[in-house]
Known about the structure:
Layout: E1 7-16, E2 19-29, E3 34-39, H1 45-52, E4 60-65, E5 68-70, H2 75-81, E6 83-86, H3 98-102, E7 109-110, E8 113-114, H4 116-129, H5 146-158, E9 164-168, H6 176-191, E10 195-199, H7 203-209, E11 212-217, E12 220-226, H8 232-241, E13 243-244, E14 247-248
Parallel strand pairs: 3-10, 3-11, 6-9, 9-10
Antiparallel strand pairs: 1-2, 1-4, 4-5, 7-8, 11-12, 13-14
Helix pairs in contact: 5-6
Amino acid sequence: xxxxxxxxxxxxxxxxxxxxxxxxxxxxxxxxxxxxxxxxxxxxxxxxxxxxxxxxxxxxxxxxxxxxxxxxxxxxxxxxxxxxxxxxxxxxxxxxxxxxxxxxxxxxxxxxxxxxxxxxxxxxxxxxxxxxxxxxxxxxxxxxxxxxxxxxxxxxxxxxxxxxxxxxxxxxxxxxxxxxxxxxxxxxxxxxxxxxxxxxxxxxxxxxxxxxxxxxxxxxxxxxxxxxxxxxxxxxxxxxxxxxxxxxxxxxxxxxxxxxxxx
Length: 263
């Protein structure tokens, strides 16, 4: 029996004034898989993520979660569904320790006092489930390496029974060893049954961990393909011209190309 997508984006449009940033965009995210979302600067990747996560309202189209249409009007709505986004800036507070960062804004309380023991247990359990054992729960975020910071930000996202985790360029500022560490964690998230969306410009990362690729070109979905069925050069063509061979959008000399985009 075919596996149903956990998250579906169907025919989504989004405009800012006269500029149409997304047009008829589609994307499917499956449980237990990594879907790489790729596209050139201005292709609409960030806008699409902000529509999925409730930061921007969509103008047309539909978001379907676990088989039912949903309205995501705010990040709180997205979190209630189990959609979490780890943005490039990570949103960690350097002066707080790992436990405090993971529960920031969602602290557990016992009466009026913080329930430090419960939070520490939950943080430990989450990190252990992701096979993360190299950090002390009470060390400040300022002392963490880039790879460790990214790891904690991802663990924070999956702490709340998340089902879809969207990662925005998680290896952009990392060295080789730290990149490998984060990619292992990305793969582990999918192996634990989550649907993972990896936004990346790095084709080596994309081909290392993704099961599927969704390529955007000038605000449109150029293709949704299995990673095993395309080559690096074909994905680059999808990103830069919107098609490769028989895959993707037909060449369009119309006015849309001249409109540019916003990511």
